[in-house]
Amino acid sequence: MKLARATPAELEAIFGEDTRSVWICSPWITSDGLALLKSAMSRCNISLLWSFEVWTRIDEAEREAGITDFPALETFFESLEQEAPDLKVAIRTASRLHAKAILTDSGALVGSANLTGSGFGENIEMTMRLDREEAAAVTSLRDALRPELSVVERETWRQFVRGVPLPAPAPAPTPKASAWEDFRERLLQGRDSGGIR
Q1: 147-156: burial string, b at 16+ Cβ within 10 Å, e else
Q2: How many domains is the chain built from?
Q3: Which site among 55, 64, 139, 191 is 20 to 30 Å from 31 CA-CA?
């Protein structure tokens, strides 16, 4: 585990030849952030990717304000899908999303930085870089939080990018206590045994 400033080098460090899945959790995503991600992903074989999941705020007011560059994100998805024929792109959203994390098969970054040029540049941001084994905790938390976000189907996403208003989202189901209890129990066990397994 390494506490560091959020930089392009820290982002690159969690990608490698064995990267097959990527999870991005960032309320805001900009084209310069995507350029940094593309550069980091040059360390992996994109044609072998099979999962690319993005959690972000999908909001019409933010689209109009340009806070997230939704067209650039769609172009990024399309580019990945052309290079990786077996890739599954999944998009989820929640209006109260505030977490920031990037997880790959090689490690994770968890901290304060959105996937933006300023988040990984001039802003004063911190991140924890986790190695492959430590990233298991992030995987557990991601799986516990996932039910709280709404799935955005690709066609609905494409329409939103083109400016069509989103349909009213179905309320996200209340997370099952067992998912949280399981995650908490694993954390407590990890504290006693030297790490989450």
Answers
A1: ebbbebeeeb
A2: 1
A3: 139
